[in-house]
Amino acid sequence: MKTIALVVLFSAVAAAEPQPPIGATATLDREIAVVERTPIWQSELDELLARVPAQNFSPDQKRQALTSLIDGVLIQHTADQRQIGAGSAEVDAAIKEVEAQNQIDDAGLEKALAEQHYTHAQYREDLARQIRVQRVRKLIIEPKVSVTDAEVLAEWAKRSKDAPTSEQREQLRQALFEHKLDLATEEWLVRRRAGAHIEVKP
Amino acid sequence: MKRLAVVVALASCGGSPAPIEPTIPPDKKPETPQIVEWTKLVGPIKAVDVATPDATLVAKVKDSLAGVIGKPIDRDELRTALAVALGLPGVSEVSAHATQLADGVQLVVDVTPQPTLHALAAREVGGADLPLPGLLTSAIGLPVNPVLLDQLGSQLQELYLSKGFTEASVDWKQTVVAKGAVDVAVEVTPGKASIVTAIDFKGNAHVKKADLLKAIGDSLAPNTPWNTDVITRGSLLVTNYYYNHGYVNVAVEEPQPPGQPSPVVYTISEGDQYRVGKLELTGASPADTKKYIALLGVKQGEVFNRTAITDGMAKLNEALKTSAPDSIVVPNTKVDDKKKVIDINFEILKG
Q1: Higher model confidence: residue B26 or residue A102?
Q2: Which structural domain, as residue segments, surrounds residue B42?
Q3: What residues of chain B lie within 8 A of the CB of A21, using their CB?
């Protein structure tokens, strides 16, 4: 019993962070970019990088991470302009889907989020953002992408001499479509970046 | 002690006594505050200080951060408050740091005011100046207003897009001309104008051009500036026409702006035409099944028509509202590429 008490006391002492000296200072936040008047904060970049298992990011990797945040703002602005939203019920449904896919309940999700430096509110916002991104792709970029039968058959011919089944043809069509959609999205983002007022702070 | 001994020895030798030097304490350099990670700071935010050369901004910035006082540092909440501060007229940049106090944390927000607008011009990149709306001259001498500059940028972009400059982009840049004063240039990169001279189709082996033109309607007309939204819509309308005539694998390539007067040519890969195969309805009683299939209005053997099917489903959903309010119809399809038929199972799912 005494041993247990001692262990508890010891861990309590070990867990308590010493208070920094009075007068100690810490940088909290600053804008690192402004995209069409929407600021991107250092803390957002820090949080994004904290969710990546790797450490010691190179300047190039940090620039890439910042570009992804800038793209996120541009997509968000496009969604706002076109009144493309994501409602609370849709986010609830997405959370349920994530829980079902990962076979976890609400408590399990909270635990997993905490491990990935997410608050529940941040995760909901992130899911809402993902839904909006999907919709922007669906409504603005997808109509510009098409895959012809000839393209599917040409791609199939590179892989097999036999004729594809309907299912194989459909799977390949879908894969080609996704590939083209990714390329079209990147092209769209390049054009969107070029037409936007973006200031990256030193 | 040693110094005293030397003085005494000199005096005893008849020499004049050396002056006693005042004891000067050693220079005490101001201590550099220890810099720590923000997560190490302990306690609630006790106060917010605003550091800015523009005293008129202090109260407004403090107001925007009032909500964080009394709470521990939460960077999510803090950046929301900082964004409000950044959006205040006259604010150019904000950053925040904090200092550990005995009983909490002091938050300090550094605010850089917007410089004064010394001159404003709009021009095409490498080209002539563009006329500015007269209202904008009143902005000269005031702090730079990014909202106003963005509005001007949008107006100019719309103007160029409406003339067929589909890639026109607008940006603004500031140049420091004196301390706290800038010139702003709004620059348009127009690209090349595309004008629609005619509308044409390639690959439409089974559909007449006149029918496709009718499907597109009047929104796309010859001798008009190229409008990407209208061209995309045309592509969707052509695709829809084919879907409604059994060509379920149709692909319509959207033409790209050519940067000159040119016809709009939609390139179509029609694919094969499909008919409706086996028709089933599940989730209803046998009596209702017959009635519901009749209501759907889709018949086995007829050319597959997407709009007719969705219209039929809308009718069925409407009917279900009274008989089974939480039910919904879902179409499950199975494509037979050899027979060129699509079997459809309309499944009534109960909520």
Answers
A1: A102
A2: 38-113
A3: 34, 100
Alpha helices for chain A (secondary structure H): 2-15, 42-50, 59-81, 88-102, 106-115, 120-136, 149-159, 166-194
- Chain B residue numbers with beta carbons less than 8 Å from the beta carbon of A201 are 93
**Total domains in the fold of chain B:** 4
Tokens of A138: 């669906």
- Report if residue B15 sits inside a domain: no
User: Is position A12 within any domain?
Assistant: no
Q: What does the buried/exposed string (b/e) look like for B292-328 if buried means 16 or more CB atoms within 10 Å of the residue's CB?
A: bbebbebeeeeebbeebbeebbeebeeebeeebeebe
CA–CA min distance B312, chain A (Å)? 25
CB contact under 8 A, A143 and B96: no
Q: Tell me whether residues B171 and A197 touch, CB distance under 8 A.
A: yes
Say if B2 falls within a structural domain: no
Q: Which two tokens stand for residue A66?
A: 């910042």
B327 confidence band (pLDDT: 50, 70, 90) = confident
Rounded Cα distance between A35 and B227, Å, is: 26
Read off the tokens for B76: 């999510």
pLDDT of residue B127: 83
| B108 shares a domain with B121 | no
